[in-house]
Amino acid sequence: RMKTLLVIECSTQLNWFKIFEGYKLPWGEELRVDQAEWDDISLTSYADSGVQVNLRRANRPLPDSPQNRNRSITVDFILLRSVTRGVSGQDSKNLLLGFLHGNIPSMNSLESAYMCLERPIVFGELKQIQKKLKKEGIVFPLIQQNYYPHHREMIITPDFPLVGKIGHAHAGYGKMKIKSDEEIQDFKSIIAINNDYVTLEPFVQWDFDMRIQKIGRDYRGFKRTSPNWKGNTGNSSVIEDLEVTPVYKRWVDECSRLFGGLDILGLDLLHSKETGRDYILELNDTAIGLVHKYEIEDMSLMRDMALAKLCVYYAPPPLPISSSSPSSSSSSSSTTSSEHKESEPDRQSNVEIQKSDAEKIKELEEMVASLEVNLAKEKKTVKDLNEQISAAKKKKGFFS
């Protein structure tokens, strides 16, 4: 059966069919690619036949794609590019659990996506990074934040002005700037009719906000200015490139180790207009938005990483070595077969084992080898990966 990669993508404008067009697995096998939003997916996870997925016809199908009809697929790998929970009651956690039940490999991992469903879990991990780096004398300027399980506990609050955030909301939703006791009482009255937790944090008068993005071993920095206190709302914001300093790299490298490893992430910060200090607001995982001018390049990076991971999970086992001695052909062949059987890796188990630094280098080398199949298209990518491997070896095999 042909391997199937499912891209779960929230944006109807991004065409992953085009990004994967013409690509095969390194051993020559064709790869089937499909793309859908959470709302168009239904599934059942069976004990004997895996996860059977039904994809509904898209409201706005991409041109020259199978999205113009209903289809059924068996998923072998997921590229997760959509938030699992959103606004207006959108909650696809049960579908995520179904893929977890079927043990489907994914990027980012489904386990990390599950852990990132709730902001307090992620914030707690960021506090652990802050504690670790403090011992090394490195500042990790995480914003101070209070957590309240319900409105009745909102007695002691930060000084005004402050920002209240309701539940798991993101992208500017469920957030309110609070400047007085009267406003916080109004805010509490809204919380009282919902069953959501709340976080409160100081309001920072910022002149620009930032995102440090990491996709695999590729870093980007962005600086955004906006007339709105919520920088991600409205259409008047301006985005510029930002230098990724060694300190910023260290911060996102530490974040990329969370929850077993995050291949795709974005760390959001505010720059205080009054003090000139940076404040880390939050960590975003697999569904980070892409800046338009780098969109195709970043999608191509994700594609290459997904193909490399497919190699780790599904590459055919090596053939047993034939005996070179005719006189011992029978016994040697038997021994070789037995040894091969004992040494053949269990691919599912390998995925769960944390790879050593040397193994990470080997995995990148295998990624380079697989990309050589498409050398005409990917000369730049191959060159970059070779440079990363060389740099890692010079550092005595250390990889973040």
The termini sit apart by 36 Å
Strand-residue proportion:
15-25%
N-to-C SSE string, H for helix and E for strand: EHEEEEEHEHHEEEHEEEEHEEHHHHH
Residues in helix, %:
25-40%
Provide the residue-averaged pLDDT. 85
- How many strands? 16
For the largest beta sheet, what order do the strands appear in spatially? 14-13-12-15-16
Q: Compute the CA-based radius of gyration.
A: 24 Å
Main beta-sheet strand count, sense and barrel state: 5 strands, antiparallel
Shape: globular
Description:
It is a single chain. By secondary structure, this protein is α+β, with helices and mostly antiparallel strands. 32% of the residues lie in helices and 23% in strands. The protein contains eleven helices and 16 strands. A five-stranded antiparallel sheet has the order 14-13-12-15-16. α7 packs across α10 (357-371) and α10 (357-371) runs antiparallel to α11. The two termini are 36 Å apart. Mean pLDDT is 85; it is low at 325-358 and 396-400.
Describe the SSE topology:
Blueprint (H helix, E strand, L loop, with lengths): L2 E7 L6 H5 L10 E6 L4 E6 L3 E6 L15 E4 L2 E5 L11 H9 L4 E2 L2 H6 L3 H17 L10 E3 L13 E5 L8 E4 L2 H11 L6 E5 L3 E10 L2 E8 L12 E4 L4 H10 L8 E9 L5 E7 L10 H20 L14 H15 L3 H6 L4 H15 L7 H16 L6
Parallel strand pairs: 1-2, 1-6, 6-7
Antiparallel strand pairs: 3-4, 4-5, 8-11, 9-10, 9-11, 12-13, 12-15, 13-14, 15-16
Helix pairs in contact: 7-10, 10-11
Question: Summarize this, please?
Answer:
With 400 residues, this protein is an alpha+beta fold.
